[in-house]
C-alpha cells in the first residue's frame, strides 16, 4: 500500500490527478526522458504495477523528446554504421503504464509541490507554462553543451549531443566533399575539406575518428579528392586526450590519430571562428566550413529555476540515497545530481556525471522511491569505478578496464559489446546487431540527405513562394536540432534564485563554474573536452 503525503498544490489552474475518479492518487513526476528518467520510470512501473492498476499511483514523464537517445552510439550513427532510428528508444513503447508529456520543465516550486512545463503546442500558441502538481519529484533534466564566448561559435559551429546533430553533421561532411569536388576555387575547396573538432574527450575523439573513417572511405568515389586532401584538426586545451583510459592509452590514441594524418593540437584553444576562419591560440588560422564543439557540458538551466539546493557547480546537492539534500520527496541522479561517492577515499568526493554511474543509479533510485512510498528503509548508492572504453573508428579502440589495458581490435570489440549490452530493450539490441552484421558484409552507404532538414524548400520554390531557407544557402548554415532551434527562438527564461544571487554578487551563474567538480575540468575559458569522460565511454549520457 502506498503512503503519500498529498501535499501538492491544488490551487485553481494547477493540474492535479489525471486518473478519473482518483484525484488523491500519488503522482510521481519524472522531469526528463533521458537515461535516468526513462530507466527510473521503467523500474517504477514494474515495481508499482499493482498500485498503478488500482489507480493509487500515476507516473508522469515530461520529456523534451518522445524518445531517449543512447549517446555513445551517436558517432557510429554519424558514420553510417547504425541507422539513426536505432539509437533512440520510443518512450511511449517502453513506458506503457506512464503518461508521457512531450515538453520541457521550466521551473520547480518544491515548497508547493508544483512544476511548470511548456509543450510544443503551448510554445506555438504563445501560451505560458502549464503548472502540474506532484507528490514525488524525480528531477533528471540532464546536461546541455557548455559553450564559451568564442566569436562566431554560435553562428558557425555545431555540437554533438543529439541524434539530429549527429546526422546533420554526417550530411554536412558529405556535402562539403561535394562542394570541394565541384568547385574551381582553391580557397573554397580547402575550406570545405578542413574539419576542426574542439574537445579531446570521448565525444570529440570518437566523433572525429568515426567521421574521418567515413570521409576517407568516401574519397574512393570522388574522382578529384584523395584522402591526403582531407584536413582533420583536433583541438584540446589540456596536455592529453581521453584521460580516463590512462596516460599510456591516451598517448597511444594520439599516435593512432596522427598516423591517420589527423592533426592533434594539445594545449591549444579556439579563439575565434568568425567568417569561417578558425583562429587558434597557437597563432594559426585556417579557413574551414566545419567546426564541431564538444568541449564539455553543464547542468540543465532548469536547475537554477528551482528552490532546491545546488552546489557551487550548479548540480543538485544529493545524499547517497539519491534524495535531494535537506528536502523530502525530491530525488535526482545522473548529470544533474552531485551524489556523494562513498567508495572514494577522500571525503566530499562526488560521483562523476557519466553514464557508468547513471546506469547504476537508476536501479537504486527506483527502489528507494518505492521503499519511501511503502515506509521502508532506503538503500545507499555505491559503485566503484570500473574503467573506460573508447572507439577510434572502425576496428580501432582503447580500453582500460579493471586495471587491464587493451588497444586496437580487442578494445574496439569490447567497446561495441559493452554498449550493446547497455542499449535499452531487446528490440534495439537485435536491430543494432543485425546492422553491424550487414555492414561487415556490404560496403558503406555514402549519401547525404541534407534536404531532409528543410523538406519544404523545393515545394516552396515550385509554388512560387520565397523559400524560408533559400536553396542557395543550403550549405551555409550548420545543422541544428529542432530543440535547439526552439530554444534560440524562445524568450530567455526568468532567472532562478541561485542565478539571481550570482548576478547580484558578480559571481558565476550555476552551470558555469570557475572550476570543475571531481572528474570534471570545466574552468571558465577552458575548452578541454577531457574532463567529463565516462567510465563506459561517453560524457553526459545519464539523462536529459
From TrEMBL:
Annotated FAD/NAD(P)-binding domain residues = 27-350
The annotated region (Disordered) lies at 1-24, 468-544
Give the protein name, as stated in the record. Answer: FAD-dependent oxidoreductase
Q: Which UniProt keywords apply?
A: FAD, Flavoprotein, NAD, Oxidoreductase
Low complexity: which segments have biased composition?
A: 10-24, 497-507
Q: Is Disulfide bond one of the keywords?
A: no
The cross-references to InterPro entries, in alphabetical order and at most eight, read: FAD/NAD-bd_sf, FAD/NAD-binding_dom, NDH-2
Protein family according to the UniProt entry:
Belongs to the NADH dehydrogenase family.
Transmembrane domains' residue ranges: none
Establish whether keyword NAD is in the entry: yes
Q: Where is the composition biased (Gly residues)?
A: 528-544
Gene Ontology MF terms: NADH dehydrogenase activity
Amino acid at each position: 500500500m502506498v503512503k503519500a503525503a498529498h501535499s501538492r498544490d491544488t490551487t485553481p489552474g494547477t493540474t492535479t490527478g489525471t486518473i478519473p475518479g482518483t484525484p488523491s492518487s500519488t503522482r510521481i513526476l519524472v522531469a526528463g526522458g533521458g537515461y535516468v528518467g526513462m530507466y527510473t520510470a521503467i523500474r517504477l512501473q514494474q515495481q508499482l504495477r499493482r498500485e498503478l492498476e488500482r489507480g493509487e499511483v500515476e507516473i508522469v514523464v515530461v520529456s523534451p523528446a518522445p524518445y531517449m537517445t543512447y549517446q555513445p552510439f551517436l558517432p557510429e550513427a554519424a558514420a553510417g554504421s547504425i541507422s539513426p532510428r536505432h539509437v533512440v528508444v520510443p518512450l511511449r513503447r517502453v513506458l506503457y503504464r506512464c503518461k508521457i508529456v512531450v515538453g520541457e520543465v521550466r521551473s520547480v516550486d518544491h515548497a508547493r509541490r508544483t512544476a511548470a512545463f511548456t509543450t510544443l503546442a503551448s510554445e506555438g500558441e504563445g501560451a505560458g507554462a502549464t503548472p502540474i502538481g506532484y507528490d514525488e519529484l524525480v528531477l533528471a533534466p540532464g546536461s546541455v553543451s557548455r559553450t564559451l564566448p568564442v566569436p562566431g561559435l554560435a553562428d558557425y559551429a555545431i555540437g554533438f549531443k543529439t541524434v539530429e546533430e549527429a546526422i546533420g553533421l554526417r550530411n554536412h561532411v558529405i556535402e562539403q566533399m561535394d562542394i570541394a569536388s565541384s568547385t574551381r576555387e582553391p580557397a573554397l575547396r580547402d575550406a570545405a575539406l578542413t574539419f576542426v573538432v574542439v574537445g579531446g574527450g570521448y565525444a570529440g575523439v570518437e566523433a572525429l575518428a568515426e567521421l574521418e573513417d567515413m570521409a576517407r572511405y568516401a574519397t574512393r568515389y570522388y574522382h578529384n579528392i584523395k584522402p591526403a586532401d582531407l584536413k582533420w584538426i583536433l583541438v584540446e586545451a589540456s596536455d592529453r586526450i581521453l584521460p580516463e583510459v590512462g596516460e599510456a592509452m591516451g598517448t597511444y590514441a594520439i599516435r593512432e590519430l596522427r598516423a591517420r594524418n589527423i592533426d592533434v593540437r594539445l594545449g591549444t584553444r579556439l579563439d575565434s571562428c568568425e567568417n569561417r576562419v578558425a583562429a587558434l591560440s597557437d597563432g594559426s588560422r585556417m579557413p574551414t566550413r566545419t567546426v564541431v564543439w564538444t568541449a564539455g557540458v553543464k547542468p540543465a538551466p532548469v536547475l537554477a529555476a528551482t528552490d532546491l539546493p545546488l552546489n557551487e557547480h550548479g548540480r543538485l546537492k544529493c545524499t547517497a540515497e539519491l534524495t535531494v539534500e535537506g528536502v523530502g520527496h525530491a530525488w535526482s541522479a545522473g548529470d544533474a545530481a552531485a551524489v556523494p561517492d562513498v567508495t572514494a577515499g577522500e571525503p566530499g568526493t562526488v560521483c562523476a556525471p557519466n553514464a557508468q554511474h547513471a546506469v547504476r543509479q537508476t536501479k537504486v533510485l527506483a527502489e528507494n522511491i518505492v521503499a519511501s512510498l511503502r515506509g521502508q528503509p532506503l538503500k545507499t548508492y555505491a559503485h566503484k569505478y570500473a574503467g573506460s572504453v573508447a572507439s577510434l573508428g572502425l576496428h580501432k579502440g582503447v580500453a582500460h578496464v579493471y586495471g587491464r589495458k587493451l588497444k586496437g581490435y580487442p578494445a574496439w570489440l569490447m567497446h561495441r559489446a559493452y554498449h550493446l549490452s547497455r542499449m535499452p530493450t531487446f528490440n534495439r539490441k537485435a536491430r543494432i546487431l543485425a546492422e553491424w552484421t550487414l555492414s561487415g558484409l556490404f560496403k558503406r552507404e555514402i549519401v547525404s540527405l541534407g534536404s531532409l532538414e528543410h523538406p519544404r524548400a523545393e515545394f516552396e520554390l515550385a509554388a512560387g513562394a520565397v523559400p524560408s531557407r533559400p536553396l542557395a544557402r543550403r550549405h551555409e548554415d550548420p545543422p541544428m536540432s529542432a530543440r535547439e532551434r526552439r530554444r534560440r527562438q524562445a524568450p530567455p527564461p526568468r532567472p532562478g534564485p541561485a542565478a539571481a544571487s550570482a548576478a547580484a554578487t558578480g559571481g558565476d551563474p550555476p552551470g558555469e563554474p570557475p572550476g570543475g567538480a571531481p572528474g570534471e575540468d570545466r574552468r571558465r575559458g577552458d575548452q578541454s573536452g577531457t574532463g567529463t569522460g565516462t567510465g563506459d565511454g561517453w560524457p553526459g549520457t545519464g539523462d536529459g
